[in-house]
Amino acid sequence: MRVSLNMRNRRGFTLVEMLVSLTILGILASIALPYAELTVKRAKEVELRASLRQIRTAIDEFHQDWKSETIVRNDGSSSRDGYPVSLDVLVDGAPLANSDQIKRYLRRIPRDPFTQDGPAMDHWQLHGYQDDPESVIWGGDDVYDVRVTHDMQALDGTYYKDW
User: Fold this and answer.
1) How far is 97 from 66, CA to CA, in rounded Å?
2) Does residue 149 contact residue 115 with C-beta atoms inside 8 Å?
3) pLDDT (tens digit per residue) in 87-146
4) Are 125 and 134 within 8 A, CB to CB?
């Protein structure tokens, strides 16, 4: 009877209980880690789409203002086709016609979330209006479109450079 009383008063875990607990925790961690990585990549993809949309919308708005002569056409900020000569023009702005004010299209050049090093300007591959669509070399006349500079693949199997 004395032995069974000591067994009841003992506290703690047996080696088997500890191994079972560690095994269960290991399995849960192996499931959670890939899910966390997937969630981070998905968030970066959302940010990349937003950055591309923001730049492309600013380029389109600049071109529309150039066509409607809202901005000055011959001040050096636009090409002969009506697109900005660089991404910096979208940040610095273009002078409004019949006014001494400047219209800015972006507060800053958005960053590519997959390329965190270096200036934001270096994150984008520029394409001009006269450039071949498949060319990786920018002609330097104007900025008609932007793409990422890397060859990373998205979760859906497409390449970010094709977005």
Assistant:
1) 10
2) yes
3) 999 999 999 998 889 999 999 999 999 987 878 778 899 999 998 888 888 888 999 999
4) no
Q: DSSP per residue over 99-142, as a string?
A: SS-EE-S-SSPPPPTT--SS-GGGGEEEE-TTS-TT-SS--SS-
Report the predicted TM-score, pTM, of the whole model to 2 decimal places: 0.79
Confirm if 139 and 152 have CB atoms less than 8 A apart.
no
Please say whether the beta carbons of 78 and 88 come within 8 A.
no
**CA dist., res. 139 & res. 145, Å (int):** 12
Q: For the chain, what's the residue count?
A: 163
| Phi, psi values for residue 127, rounded to 5° | -130, 135
Single-letter code of the amino acid located at 12: G
Distance CA 58, CA 84 (A): 10
CB contact set of 87 (below 8 Å; sequence gap of 6+):
55, 106, 109, 121, 124, 126, 143, 146
103, 96 contact by CB (below 8 A): yes
Cα 113 from chain centre: 4
